[in-house]
Amino acid sequence: MGLPEPHGGRLVDRTLGAAESERRRSEASVLPSVGLTEEAAFDLEKIAVGAYSPLTGFQGSADLEAILEQGRRADGTPWGLPILLAQPPIDKIGSRGPGIGDEVLLRAPSGRPIGLLRLEEVYPIPKSRVAERIYGTTDTAHPNVADLAASPSHAWAGPIELLDWPELPDRSLERSPAELRERFRAHGWSNVAAYQCRNPPHTAHELLQRQTLEREEIDGLLIHPVVGRLKAGDYRPQIILQSYRVLTERYLPADRVELASLSISMRYAGPRAALFLATVRKNFGCRSYIVGRDQAGVGRYYEP
After folding, report:
1. Which residue range is the domain that position 54 belongs to?
2. Is the pLDDT of residue 224 over 90?
3. What is the CATH number of the domain that holds 127?
4. What is the pTM of this model?
């Protein structure tokens, strides 16, 4: 038994080699460009490296409709959360705005060019319906609902290519799905359990991890903290990573554990988010997934 197939059967790779990336950047000055939020920059990278396989770009209206109504993409593939690029309608961009079929330069929040989008569709986001279906509430006290309400009105959809990596507070533990799959194979692991977390560990977390490693069918454990954009009150990425470095180096068996970071914006969508995060870990090569008491919840919107 080898590692599980990526979701959809193929690990997506939308990254460019160094020479091709440099060539495309040199041509990009003539392209229309838009700025990305921190969340969109993280999503761009995760699409490109295959963490969101089988997605090859930001999702269109047919996918969004299918996700809202069925929890699937338009082609029937199970998929819990929409990955959208919120932008103004094209007619609000001005004379340098793109048209359908055009290539668009994507800029990081710092202004640095990091990606390209082949624009296939622009459509209005049904914000109230997305909030209700995905997050179970339209209450803007929910951090993701507040972000959705404040975001631009339309979604731009189409395939992407990654020119450069988004800025991160700490990239030292960031690994692509291909890199982690290679490490798992080098260990001889075929059944890897993923541990999702977004805060420093405490003794109950360590107990869950140790009990997982005691199971006969588990070869290894991936501790994979989300260290992208979190909610107010969560710990800083550097603190989370340092605490897990100490745990894995001093207290857990080094030959049974891999530690890597996952830089995405946390979606607090209860069970929907738990399934989405499990799908992402499947793309990283994990066959099993540890679901915590309230790992994707916030406030009192979801039952633990």
Report:
1. 18-162
2. yes
3. 3.10.400.10
4. 0.94
